[in-house]
Amino acid sequence: MEINQVSEQAVMANAKKQLLYWSMASIVIFFGAFCSYYLVMHANANWFTFNLPALFYVSTALIILSSATMYWAQQSIKKNNLAAVKQAMLLTLLLGIGFCISQIEAWKDLYSHGIVFAGKHSSIAGGILYVITSMHFLHIVAGIMALTVTYIKSLKSKYSAENHLGLSLCGIFWHFLDILWVILFLFLYLFR
Question: With DSSP H G I counted as helix, E B as strand and the rest as coil, what are the percentages for the chain, rounded to 5?
Answer without folding.
Answer: 80, 0, 20
